Amino acid sequence: xxxxxxxxxxxxxxxxxxxxxxxxxxxxxxxxxxxxxxxxxxxxxxxxxxxxxxxxxxxxxxxxxxxxxxxxxxxxxxxxxxxxxxxxxxxxxxxxxxxxxxxxxxxxxxxxxxxxxxxxxxxxxxxxxxxxxxxxxxxxxxxxxxxxxxxxxxxxxxxxxxxxxxxxxxxxxxxxxxxxxxxxxxxxxxxxxxxxxxxxxxxxxxxxxxxxxxxxxxxxxxxxxxxxxxxxxxxxxxxxxxxxxxxxxxxxxxxxxxxxxxxxxxxxxxxxxxxxxxxxxxxxxxxxxxxxxxxxxxxxxxxxxxxxx
Length: 309
What we know:
Order of helices and strands: HHHHHHHHHHHHHHHH
Strand content: under 5%
Structural class: mainly alpha
InterPro entries: DUF979 (IPR009323)
Keywords: Membrane, Transmembrane, Transmembrane helix
Low-confidence stretches: none
Distance between the termini: 58 Å
Oligomer: single chain
Largest sheet: none
Number of strands: 0
Protein name: DUF979 domain-containing protein
């Protein structure tokens, strides 16, 4: 066991810590007698925690079955909310007045410390984020005078509010990987080449930007869409075909992809999680408010990319 720990990289310890926290959340759910779906919710976070702790040591098939089991729990609607030992509203208002804007210090520390560690050390941004989060938690506990145990209850409350969408980013990353293996990029390239004239730069730009937005809407992740659409349209048709500067069209294409992010529930972290946290009645309220802005931005991105060509 000690030998295994010595071989672990800094990022492995981050995954281990996240997994342990998820297991604690699962235990809290299992023992929560006020939770109507405590077994399903506890099992969901337990399986998720296992994937973080032992995922690198298990076969791809076992990891796949864990995902299927988690999906089954969601399918049968066995996720829910329980009792998180929250303070009374009056007490929260009193604490808000007492602490004031000082409460924002932990949040600011997360960004500042992550940047410092990511920029000035070799640990990387993810490890820096983990270290920053631990430091910010300690500062938050000092400011609020709360107990360490309550931080786990609050963490579970937020995670339960987010629900299954917490794992969506990882699933979408896997989807992008599968799309590339399946040769979807080559298929898109041949389809666009058969429809769009090779000498019509404007139509190629339209296909590139709309393709970025469309596949981001499907995959929920502009990064996954970027690799596929750029290799299918951007590089062969604009860079190689018309001498476009990749340093110019790349950022614009990414921004076009983010226009798709504003219009899809697949981008759960941006569009569905806020709805859950704010307890909005309209599940797609955030998306509906963003669609007009996204369409205007996408149009401007098309014109901007064409201008620089």
